[in-house]
């Protein structure tokens, strides 16, 4: 079974803090994705990566950056957290041929 | 642009059939997906259909694809309380087949 894990299920941070969300997959997938999920808006793509050290902006990259130093690990960074970044963050991975994405359990981030 | 639309809520009685509908814009999508999200969890792949198929059945789940109308539906037979969740429809992006475009999700509530 594909397994995608995320470093925290719940996280509470203060405005202005630097926040790291980590995601690890064990299926040797080339593609990894970060989404945020907000009620009524579905999933919105923040960033994705095709390979180590490669990244592409998604639909809402502002306020976020990413890092992929190893194939299995994809990190999302909030350089200076703001209250409007309070959300559920979901990581996913897929193989190089694309298609089916496998998701982690999500991190619910609250920024006070 | 690319868009996937779903109604936000559906309420059914236990034992009845549920039908969750989705419309999409990109007729060139290769695959269309249904994901399920239980409370507080990530997205779980339920099923998918290749674009050259009209129907796919998997136990209690039936997926129907009407390419002419760009309409996808998920039917759950004998709906159980454990089926209560948010269901997301997704299509592969025309511009990048590694990306998925998600709908807003339909919250299915099953009552006794």
Report on this model:
The complex is a heterodimer of chains A (112) and B (112). Chain A is mainly β. Chain A is built from no helices and eleven strands. In chain A, strands 2, 4, 5, 6, 9, 10 and 11 form a seven-stranded mixed beta sheet that branches. Chain B has 112 residues and is mostly beta strands. In chain B, strands 2, 4, 5, 9, 10 and 11 form a six-stranded mixed beta sheet that branches. Chains A and B meet through strand 5, strand 9 and strand 10 of A and strand 4 and strand 5 of B.
Question: Key features?
Answer:
heterodimer, A: 112 residues, mainly beta, 7-stranded mixed beta sheet, 4-stranded antiparallel beta sheet, 11 strands, B: 112 residues, 6-stranded mixed beta sheet, 5-stranded antiparallel beta sheet, 0% helix, 56% strand
Structural class of chain A: mainly beta
What does the largest sheet of chain A look like? 7 strands, mixed
Which residues of chain B sit in consecutive blocks of at least 5 with pLDDT less than 50?
none
> What is the chain-wise order of helices and strands of chain A?
EEEEEEEEEEE
Q: Please provide the ordered H/E string of secondary-structure elements of chain B.
A: EEEEEEEEEEE
Helix fraction of chain B by DSSP (H/I, runs of at least 4): under 10%
- Indicate the mean pLDDT of chain B: 91
Q: Helicity of chain A, in percent? A: under 10%
Distance between the termini of chain A: 37 Å
Strand percentage of chain B:
over 45%
Shape of chain A: globular
Number of helical segments with 4 or more residues of chain B? 0
Query: Major sheet of chain B: size, sense and barrel closure?
Result: 6 strands, mixed
Helix and strand layout, with pairings?
The complex is a heterodimer of chains A (112) and B (112).
Chain A: E1 4-6, E2 10-13, E3 19-25, E4 31-38, E5 42-49, E6 56-57, E7 64-70, E8 73-78, E9 87-94, E10 102-103, E11 107-111
Parallel strand pairs in A: 2-11
Antiparallel strand pairs in A: 1-3, 3-8, 4-5, 4-9, 5-6, 7-8, 9-10, 9-11
Chain B: E1 4-6, E2 9-13, E3 18-24, E4 31-37, E5 43-50, E6 55-58, E7 61-66, E8 71-76, E9 85-92, E10 100-102, E11 106-111
Parallel strand pairs in B: 2-11
Antiparallel strand pairs in B: 1-3, 3-8, 4-5, 4-9, 6-7, 7-8, 9-10, 9-11
């Amino acid at each position: 079974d594909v397994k995608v894990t995320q470093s925290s299920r719940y996280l509470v941070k203060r405005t202005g803090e630097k926040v790291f969300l980590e995601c690890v997959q064990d299926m040797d997938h080339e593609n990894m994705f970060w989404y945020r999920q907000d009620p009524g808006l579905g999933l919105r793509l923040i960033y994705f990566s095709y390979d180590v050290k490669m990244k592409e902006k998604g639909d809402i990259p502002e306020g976020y950056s990413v890092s992929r130093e190893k194939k299995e690990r994809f990190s999302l960074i909030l350089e200076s957290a703001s209250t409007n970044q309070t959300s559920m963050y979901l990581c996913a991975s897929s193989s190089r041929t694309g298609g089916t994405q496998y998701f982690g359990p999500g991190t619910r981030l609250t920024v006070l | 642009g690319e868009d996937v639309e779903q109604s936000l809520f559906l309420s059914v009685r236990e034992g009845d059939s549920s039908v969750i509908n989705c419309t999409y814009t990109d007729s060139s999508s290769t695959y269309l997906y249904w994901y399920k999200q239980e409370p507080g969890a990530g997205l779980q792949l339920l099923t998918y259909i290749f674009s050259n198929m009209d129907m796919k059945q998997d136990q209690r789940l039936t997926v129907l694809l009407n390419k002419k109308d760009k309409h996808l539906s998920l039917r759950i037979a004998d709906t159980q309380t454990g089926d209560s969740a948010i269901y997301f429809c997704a299509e592969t992006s025309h511009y990048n087949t590694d990306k998925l475009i998600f709908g807003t999700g339909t919250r299915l509530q099953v009552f006794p």
